Amino acid sequence: MERDKLTDIEKKYLDSAGGHCIFCGSKELDKGSPFFDEETNKVYVSVMCLSCAEEWSDIFSLTEVNPVTKLIEYKTKEVEEDGEN
Ligand SMILES: [Zn+2]
């Protein structure tokens, strides 16, 4: 969803990382187990407000990757191969 199409309430919700109910503002939320949907490549978490009983889904997508050790080995190999040309 494009950010300029979001309501102010939804923007506030995203900016606070989903810490409060989008209907009543309560912080008493019950979040379900994350579900990964292979078709959309997104993770869905159902959320219920314990104060007003409204429900919605938080939707997560991949935004960062943090390579640790294997990429370093690969890059070293690549540099050695380039040196031979
Ligand atoms: Zn609520």
Question: What report would you give on this structure?
Answer:
The protein is α+β, with helices and mostly antiparallel strands and 85 residues long. It has one domain (3-83). Helices cover 26% and strands 25% of the residues. The chain contains two helices and four strands, in the order H-E-E-E-E-H. Strands 1, 2, 3 and 4 form a four-stranded antiparallel sheet that branches. The chain is elongated. The structure holds zinc ion. Zinc ion is lined by residues 21, 23-24, 26, 49, 51-52, 54.
Features:
binds zinc ion; alpha+beta; 85 residues
Please sum up the structure shown.
This protein is of the alpha+beta class. It is about 25% helix and about 25% strand.
Helical run tally: 2
Tell the overall outline: elongated
Q: What share of residues are in beta strands?
A: 15-25%
Number of structural domains: 1
Helix content bin = 25-40%
Our measurement of the CA-to-CA distance between the termini, rounded to an integer number of angstroms, reads 47 Å
Please give the oligomerization state of what you see. Answer: single chain
Indicate the mean pLDDT: 86
Give every kind of bound small molecule, once each.
Answer: zinc ion
Radius of gyration, taken over Cα atoms and rounded to an integer in Å: 20 Å
The secondary-structure class comes to alpha+beta
| Counted beta strands | 4
Low-confidence stretches: none
Write the element-wise H/E pattern from the N-terminal end onward: HEEEEH
Largest sheet: 4 strands, antiparallel
